[in-house]
Design a protein that fits this description.
- The complex is a heterodimer.
- Helix content of chain A is about 30%, strand content about 20%.
- In chain A, strands 4-3-2-1-5-6-7 form a seven-stranded mixed β-sheet.
- Chain A is globular and about 45 Å long.
- Chain A contains eight helices and seven strands.
- By secondary structure, chain B is an alpha/beta fold.
- Chain B folds into two domains: about 5-265, Aconitase, domain 3 (2-Layer Sandwich), CATH 3.30.499; about 275-420, Aconitase, domain 3.
- In chain B, the strands form five sheets. Chain B has a five-stranded parallel β-sheet, covered by helices on one side.
- In chain B, helix 2 (about 40-50) crosses helix 5 (about 145-150), helix 6 (about 175-190) runs parallel beside helix 7 (about 210-220) and helix 10 packs parallel to helix 13 (about 405-410).
- The relative contact order of chain B is 0.13.
- The chains are: A alpha/beta, B alpha/beta.
- The structure holds iron/sulfur cluster.
């Protein structure tokens, strides 16, 4: 397992305005952004989370603005993985580009409850809910995306000339 | 022989240097324009240093627009704009807009002729999809993508499949582009076009002004789409010529291109539409709207802050008074629009009616400044998002509507259709 942690679950259409409200976008300080993460939806989010926890959500997670501050705030809060039914596309790109693993797996989302112990192996795409004693297989990342994640983000991938072979 | 492609796929193929691209394929594309604002550029600029590159890929193909928290709303915002200004100076970036040259980015770029038909544009702002109205492929990305774009002139994209909207008929009086897009999002939902392209075609397109098209393409992201795009016609070409844009390249979808879904939309059946809190998909027409009292009206933003929008709102407010107790904030989207509205006497109409007129800014649209809502307050806004806390307190509410509905509501103090006051 690459990650193993406690689940915290939210619903559908969690938008970037609740992930990090615009009133805090006058900074790029990661710690400060993390301290306000999710506060309009769940003001105790910051104190509830410990490093390595797993965020679980429904459809269209991260919809709304392109602010990269949203995945940054989540990553900096200590969240090690997001499992959702689906992601909004800009959020998806941003998470990949900054090296925050995110995966779509509706079956795992359906069973998960806040507090469940969940783990994932990135290579096999296998997700395990230890509390419910269930195993799921998520679709693996396309090779191109996996390469970006492996390098640790888009900047590193570009520096390693990962784009060379795609054209 | 090549397989058929959608309009979007053709633009992507051309920019990937390939004869054909397929939905789902990951490609690397050459960029014609890379955009960011005072919120997203600082993150991109911080990243830029990590590329180990001195200069940007092309000084003419980057636009930095200080619009969200500008004119600088506080010290931190001022520092962010300064970081952008210093970067622009240092790298010789030509299209840097601030102060007296400013405007809301997605109104500004088309106006300045910085985008043309057939272009491929990415922007670190989700409403970058606006330029699809001009027959360009444009989409929102994040700051790291933007940074990579500035350094290399390239971006990775997944080729989208598409939904086709065939428009027919003609809009009724007091109905405009905003009603069309709220109607569509109400129908397909906020993730109805997730990862996809929304292509607009049909004889109804010709009936829409370029301003209406910009508004409709602007909100493609509110249906989760990668881009929204309109077929190029004479109106587009005239607009591009007037703006001094470079020579357009016109792409047309193949007749037998494959679409995931096709919707036929008769523009003449659309009536004024309002999206209730807290999602743009909560669209209601006036037969479903009861008495909703309001505290504030905002007319502006990249969705509806163009001259045509202000003209329509002023037509409704002319010689009338804003309801006592309602704050009405009008924000022309660019300095040029501001000046034209002033010369036409429209700003006078607003002020005489009891509205206030602000210098161009995103301001209240994202809950930044210039009109933040208190707990429990309600606003009718011509903006594009009504998420929890979008315009201020988490317990405030935003109702999305056209400039026409916003102006009518300003007079009555509750959500109203134009015909109530005209
Ligand atoms: S006006 Fe609103 S939606 Fe448009 S760019 Fe500004 S903040 Fe974004």
């Amino acid at each position: 397992m690459n990650v193993k942690g406690k689940a915290i679950k939210y619903g559908d259409n969690i938008d970037t305005d609740v992930i990090i409200p615009a009133r805090y976008l006058n900074t790029t300080d990661k710690k400060e952004l993390a301290s306000h993460c999710m506060e309009d939806l769940d003001k105790d989010f910051h104190s509830k989370i410990s490093a390595g926890d797993i965020l679980v959500a429904g459809n269209n997670f991260g919809c709304g603005s392109s602010r990269e501050h949203a995945p940054i705030a989540i990553k900096e809060s200590g969240i090690a993985l997001i499992i959702a039914n689906s992601f909004a596309r800009i959020f998806y790109r941003n998470a990949i580009n900054i090296g925050l693993p995110i995966i779509e797996c509706p079956e795992a989302v359906a069973d998960a409850e806040s507090g469940d112990e969940i783990g994932m192996d990135f290579n096999s795409g296998v997700i395990v809910n230890y509390t419910k004693n269930k195993e799921y297989k998520a679709a693996a990342f396309p090779a191109f995306i996996q390469a970006i994640i492996e390098k640790g983000g888009l900047v590193e991938a570009v520096n390693a000339d990962i784009f060379g072979g795609t054209k | 022989m090549n397989k058929p492609m959608t309009m979007t796929q053709k633009i992507l193929a051309a920019h990937a240097g390939k004869p054909y691209v397929e939905a789902g394929e990951l490609i690397l594309v050459d960029l014609d324009m890379v955009l960011a604002n005072d919120i997203t550029a600082p993150v991109a600029i911080n990243e830029f240093g990590r590329f180990g590159k001195e200069g940007v890929f092309d000084k003419n193909k980057i636009s930095l627009v200080m619009d969200h928290f500008a004119p600088n709303k506080d010290i931190k915002a001022a520092e962010q704009c300064k970081l952008c200004r210093d970067f622009a100076n240092d790298k010789g970036i030509v299209n840097f807009y601030d102060g007296g040259e400013m405007g809301v980015e997605h109104a500004l770029l088309p106006e300045k002729g910085l985008v043309t038909a057939g272009d491929l544009v990415i922007g670190a702002d989700s409403h970058t999809c606006t330029y699809g109205a001009l027959g360009a492929f444009s989409t929102g990305v994040g700051s790291t993508d933007m940074s990579c774009g500035m350094a290399t002139g390239k971006a990775w994209l997944k080729v989208p499949s598409a939904i086709k909207f065939v428009l027919k008929g003609k809009l009724n009086k007091w109905v405009s582009g905003k009603d069309v897009i709220l109607h569509i999002i109400g129908k397909i939902g906020v993730d109805g076009a997730l990862y996809k392209s929304m292509e607009y075609t049909g004889e109804g397109v010709a009936e829409l002004s370029v301003s209406d098209r910009l508004c409709i393409a602007n909100m493609a992201i509110e249906a989760g789409a990668k881009n929204g795009i309109f077929e190029v016609d004479d109106k587009t070409l005239e607009f591009l010529k007037e703006a001094g844009a470079k020579e357009p390249v016109i792409y047309k979808a193949d007749e037998d291109a494959v679409y995931d879904e096709v919707y036929e939309i008769d523009l003449s059946t659309i009536t004024p539409t309002v999206a209730f809190p807290h999602l743009p998909e909560n669209a209601r027409t006036f037969d479903q709207i009861g008495e909703v009292k309001i505290d504030q009206v905002v007319i502006g933003s990249c969705t509806n802050g163009r001259l045509e929008d202000l003209v329509k709102a002023a037509e409704i407010l002319k010689g009338k008074k804003v309801k006592k107790g309602v704050r009405v904030i009008v924000i022309p989207a660019t300095q040029k629009i501001y000046l034209e509205a002033m010369e036409m006497g429209i700003l006078k109409t607003f002020i005489e009616a009891g509205a206030l007129v602000s210098t161009p800014t995103c301001g209240p649209c994202l809950g930044g400044h210039m009109g933040i809502l208190a707990k429990g307050e309600r606003a009718v806004a011509t903006t594009n998002r009504n998420f929890v806390g979008r315009m201020g307190h988490p317990e405030s509410e935003v109702y999305l509507a056209s400039p026409e509905v916003a102006a009518a509501s300003a007079i009555t103090g509750r959500i109203s259709e134009p015909k109530e006051v005209m």
